[in-house]
Amino acid sequence: MTRKEFDRFCGSLPATANVIQWGNASVWKVGGKIFAICSNWGADETDKISFKCSDLTYAILIEQKGIIPAPYLARAKWVQLASLDAMQDQDIKVYIREAYSIIKLKLTKTMRKKLGL
């Protein structure tokens, strides 16, 4: 999944917002809370996708080749695809949609109503 495809997919989810932070990272939020990031940190400067996971999903994914605990975010159960071929595009979309749902459910009822969620 390219960064452009990542941005297009995240933008298709309801009530999302995109900001460029931390240099050139494409940060996607719902209700002001981050659910997915595409960044090019590190020496190789290739795009890396990171997203929030459930505890169980986190434990399973970090055992997979090419998927690591996300730098600075691992304690909050985030993973990073160390290479873009670590996961198929359709699977990335499923996990990003799940990350979006996890974060959306953490929003207050008032905020969800305000966002039409």
Question: Can you characterise this structure?
Answer:
With 117 residues, the chain is an alpha+beta fold. It has a single domain (3-112), classed as Aspartate Aminotransferase, domain 1. It has helices at residues 3-12, 55-61, 89-106, 109-115, and strands at residues 16-21, 25-30, 33-39, 48-52, 67-69, 78-81. A hairpin with an 8-residue loop joins strand 3 and strand 4 (48-52). The two termini are 27 Å apart. GO terms for molecular function: DNA binding.
Question: What descriptive keywords fit this protein?
Answer:
six-stranded antiparallel beta sheet; YjbR-like_sf; 26% strand; alpha+beta; Aspartate Aminotransferase, domain 1; 117 residues; 6 strands
Detail the topology: elements first, then pairings.
Layout: H1 3-12, E1 16-21, E2 25-30, E3 33-39, E4 48-52, H2 55-61, E5 67-69, E6 78-81, H3 89-106, H4 109-115
Antiparallel strand pairs: 1-2, 2-3, 3-4, 4-6, 5-6
